[in-house]
Amino acid sequence: MTAFEATGFGGAEAGTGCLYAGKQCNRGATDLQSVSNMLDLSGIPLLLDAAQSAGLILDDLGSLSGVSYYVASGHKGLYGPPGVGILYVREGHDIDPPTCGGTGSHSDSLAMPDFLPDRLEPGTHGVQLAAGLAEGVRYLQERGLENISARRETGSSLFRQRP
Q: What strand order describes the sheet that includes 20-24?
């Protein structure tokens, strides 16, 4: 079970244009799996903010069917460089691009492409940032979350023992 900070649902109903946003955290009282299932059954999309937990808590998006959107910063627990992050959009869900222009793959058109991922990628890609994030994720996969967590805890306990 992972901790998930959930606040009131405020009468949210499916099909009303609502979105439930919650953050994954190290301390909390709600089971993410339960919230994910409930929202999935209700038809209410869930945006999971994992900025503080990605790389520290393993999120199995395959088993969390209610997670429609997953966002995370790349420079914290994923060991990537500042300025890069992750946006996961589950099939069947959609978002509008935050910025339009620099149509990339369809530079002969003034309109953004209508297919993913191109529709959400205006301008020039920060390839070096994506490469840095990929290396950070590779580091996590090679070392394993358990080993990294154990080393972090050992370092923290040594620090706490200092006079």
A: 30-31, 3-5, 20-24, 46-49, 67-73, 85-89
Residues in the chain: 163
Instruction: pLDDT tens for the chain, 163 residues: list them.
Output: 344 544 444 555 555 567 788 777 655 545 788 888 888 888 888 888 888 888 888 778 888 888 899 999 999 989 999 999 998 888 888 887 766 666 667 777 777 788 877 877 777 788 999 999 999 999 999 999 888 888 888 887 887 887 7
Instruction: Give the global pTM.
Output: 0.74
* Distance (Å, whole) CA 3 – CA 53: 10
